């Protein structure tokens, strides 16, 4: 045994079982450990107490009562004492692929990857770079693979999908609140991902609660960024871009039969009439755009252009 370690309590606990089931299980463990002690010439009384009264022994105590043979500081020391240091040794370790699967076998990480991936794609649509979209797709795929590995709760997956839809709606609304609501809902989905899974101990720990809280804070920050930065920029583009021409009044500077030229907001545009021929000098209203050609109709009021 290693210095500072302990050995002892071996009483089995039947969770939710009857007293009879507890007695049967405890008796079986008692016979098993005392039989092992007899077979290896150990202190059977000590092993009896481990099962019956949960008695524990320090490393030094275990050596003194002949539960352990001695203490060592490392594996190499143990091999030397046992006369096995000259034997060939094989070191086993996880490959990168196995380490990746191990990391993805975490419901909280899977849910966070899924939500972060959706948010990344939404942000990339606001600011097209393609890079965030690629990273977002990878994150979503990794989250789904992890959910498949652990057999995640269907309820948790459904909540996450609804949360993702709410985040995507932000593309239409642009006020940030849909994204914030989606992230908050997604945090609940992540919480439910591990429900019904055979974990020991419970995967819902204080650390997980802190992670989900940080995720919500991140969602609030991104939502406010969309509301205060991206939203105004989008509205400004609409006010200053070609779309801002729609609804404006202009004057035909050539006859439109049905095509010609008009002046709108001080600029000359190629135009096409929706209301038949329009004479030079008549006022028109811009209805829509077709590439670099504005589609107009005659202004029936012919009021003075402001």
Helix and strand arrangement:
Layout: E1 6-7, H1 19-39, H2 44-52, E2 57-58, H3 59-64, H4 75-81, H5 96-104, H6 107-126, H7 131-150, H8 154-173, H9 177-193, H10 206-240, E3 249-252, E4 259-264, E5 267-273, E6 283-290, E7 293-298
Helix pairs in contact: 1-2, 6-7, 6-8, 6-9, 8-9, 9-10
Q: Total number of β-strand segments?
A: 7
Radius of gyration: 36 Å
Helical stretch tally? 10
- What is the residue-mean pLDDT, rounded to a whole number? 89
Q: Give the proportion of residues in helices.
A: 40-55%
Largest sheet data: 5 strands, mixed, barrel
What portion of the residues fall into strands of 2 or more residues? 5-15%
Quote the distance from N terminus to C terminus.
93 Å
Question: What does the model show?
Answer:
The structure is a single chain. This protein is of the alpha+beta class and 306 residues long. It folds into three domains: 6-81, no CATH class; 96-239, no CATH class; 244-298, Nucleic acid-binding proteins (OB fold (Dihydrolipoamide Acetyltransferase, E2P), Beta Barrel), CATH 2.40.50. It is built from ten helices and seven strands. The strands form two sheets. A five-stranded mixed beta barrel has the order 3-4-5-7-6. Strands 1-2 form a two-stranded antiparallel ribbon. Helix 1 runs antiparallel to helix 2, helix 6 (107-126) packs antiparallel against helix 9 and helix 9 (177-193) packs antiparallel against helix 10 (206-240). The longest helix has 35 residues, at 206-240. The radius of gyration is 36 Å and the shape is rod-shaped. It starts with 5 loop residues before the first strand and ends in an 8-residue tail after the last strand. The mean pLDDT is 89.
